Amino acid sequence: MAKSKYGHLITRESFATSIHSEITAPKLNYIDSNGEKDLSFGWNCTAEPLVFIDDAHTHEFDEFLCILGSNPQDMKEFQTEVEICFGEGREKHIFTEPSIVYIPKGLVHCPLKYNKVGKPTVMLNVAVSPRYSKEMAESDYKKLITKASIQRRTFEVKYYIDKRLIREEKRESEDMVYTGKDTGGGALSIYWYAITEPFNMYEPPHSHNHDQFEVFLGGKAMDIREFDAEVDIWLGEEAEKHTIDSTSVVHIPKGLVHRQINFRRVDKPITLINLFASPEYQKAQTSDK
Question: Could you tell me the residue range of the domain that residue 182 belongs to?
Answer without folding.
Answer: 150-286
